[in-house]
Every structure is written in structure tokens, then in C-alpha cells.
Amino acid sequence: MADISKEINDFRVAVYGRDVRESMISLAEKVNEEVETNTTHVDEAVTTANGASQKATKASEEVQKAITEANTTLQEANAAKVSAQESATASAGSASAAAGSASAASGSAANAAASAKAVEDIAAGLGGFDGTATSVKATDTQGLVVAAGADSNAQALLDALARKVALELVSNTALTTKLADYLKKTDIVQTESTATNKVPSSAYLKQVKDSIDSNLAGLITVIDATSPATTNQTVKVCSFPSGYTWNNSTLIAAIKHGDSYKYQNSNINTYLKIDGVYMYTADTNNLNCPCRVCLIKNNHLIP
Fold first, then answer.
1. For the segment 166-199, what is each residue's pLDDT rounded down to a tens digit?
2. Distances in Å between the alpha carbon of 247 and those of 2, 241, 277?
3. Can you list the alpha helix ranges (DSSP code H) found in the chain?
4. Concatenated DSSP letters of 188-234
5. What is the Cα–Cα distance from 264 to 256, expressed in whole angstroms?
6. Cβ–Cβ < 8 Å for 249, 296
7. 251 bridge partner residues
8. What pTM does this model have?
9. 277 and 294 in contact (C-beta within 8 Å)?
10. Would you say the C-alpha torsion 170, 172, 175, 180 has a positive or negative sign?
């Protein structure tokens, strides 16, 4: 800071106007000089501060850039690590696949060798083949031509089989008679016949079967029901189906115990009444049991 004590003292002691004016001018000039000097210093300080700020900003940007590059490098390193691990895994898989392929190739080679051996064996067996059965080697396992297990040829075995069929089958008297008897029955009829040289056709047999089934359907019926729920009471278990009544039917009833129906049960009584079938039991084991009621029309009982 400038020293203005002299100018202030001159101003203080000045008596005349001229002295006062000159002391004021001198004071003002010194103050102005000091201000300009300080302003210059301030401008320089500001310029210096701005330069420092710019340098700091640039340094910060460079640091941020370095951080970004470091992060990018780290990501690339991680990606390279993952890729290396995947490559290692793929290499292990390829090695395993290669081992499997080698094993398969080894198996194929063994199979090929076995096939080649089989072809050699076949070629050896057909080495003397001239197009006839006599030249085909065959083992007689039954002892038809030579001892069992010894070698013969296909023609000899075929001849032996032909002779065996002719002697043991065709010359069999009982078989021949049976075949001749059957061949005599050449008359296939479509109607009922008692002639011994006639046989019914399959169509006629089907017609007879259907007729029997149809007739039985109207003579016998089976009804599923349930035995009484209480003891010592006569309870109706079912009604008569169409065509059946209390005086044209015979009754057979069965109670189911476990997995089977028992028709002979002395602990339950079954009755035909005018409106249906009734049951009575004093045995609690027979309550609410599945039962079957079989009705057979009278005069058609099966012996």
C-alpha cells in the first residue's frame, strides 16, 4: 500500500488556496497511481487464476479420460477372460467328442473286421459251388444221411427228407383214410341235414348261432340290485322287466362278498311277489351288498 501521510499532512497545514489545491492534486495523483498499480496486480492475479483453473479443468478431463480408458480396458480384459473360459470349455468338449469318435471308429473297425471274416467264411464254404445243391456243403444235424453232426450236402439232405415224407406220412394208413373221408364230404349245405357226407356252411352256422342268441335273450335276464339296508325286514330290491311276471318266472339270486357272487346263501331269503323281487335277511353281513337277480321264464329251465 502507498504511503500518503505527507500529502495528507500538506493538505492539513495548507493555508492558502493555492497550497490546498496543490496538496489535493498531489494526494489524488498518488491515490490514483496506487489504484492503477493495484488494478494491474489484480488483473494479473485474475489471469493467473484463470490459467490455473483452465489447467485444473484440463487435468480433470485428462483424469476422467484415463478413468474411462481404464474401465474400457477392464471390460475388455473381462470379456477376454470369459472368451478364454468358453474356449477352454469348448476345447474340453471337442476333446471328449474326439475321444468318442475315436471309440466309434475303433468299434466300426472291429465290426468291419468281423464282417470281412464272415465274408471269408462264406467264400470258403462256397468255393466249390457249381450252381447245384450237391456242391453246397451242409451239416447233417439229425443224422438223416450221415452221422449226426457230420458234413453232407444240401441235395443229399433234400432227398432224404423227401423219402422220409413219402414213407412216414403219405404211406400212413390212418392218415390217408382220414384225409379220404374228409375229401368225400364235398357237399356243403346251407340247411339242416343229417347226411354223413354233408357239412354245414359257415354262413348257416352263423345263422343258427344268431337264432339261439336271440331266443335266449327273451328267456333269461339278469338284474343288478342292492340287498336290504336293515335286518328282519322284507324289502323290494327290483321290479320285473318287460315280459317277466311273478307267475311265469323262476328266480335265482346271488349276493356279492369280496370279488365274487355267492348263489347259495342260507342267511338271505329271496321272494317273487306280484310287483317285483323281495329280499329278507337277519345277517348284518348281508346288508347293502351288491346282488344279482337272474329270472328264467318257466318251461325254459336249463337242465
1. 666 656 666 667 666 665 555 677 777 777 767 7
2. 155, 13, 12
3. 5-13, 17-125, 154-165, 173-184, 202-217
4. EESS----TTEEE-HHHHHHHHHHHHHHHHTTEEEEEEE--SSSS--
5. 11
6. yes
7. 295
8. 0.32
9. no
10. positive
C-alpha distance across the termini of the chain, in Å:
153
Closest CA to 227 of 294, 266, 279: 279
DSSP state string for 134-146: GGSEEEESS-SSS
Strand order in the sheet with 268-273: 235-238, 276-281, 268-273
Q: Which three cell numbers stand for residue 50?
A: 484463470
Q: Which amino acid belongs to residue 53?
A: S
Query: What cell numbers appear for 16 in the block?
Result: 492558502
Cell numbers for 114: 468281423
The per-residue pLDDT for range 90-127, each reduced to its tens digit, is: 766 666 765 666 666 566 667 766 766 665 665 555 55
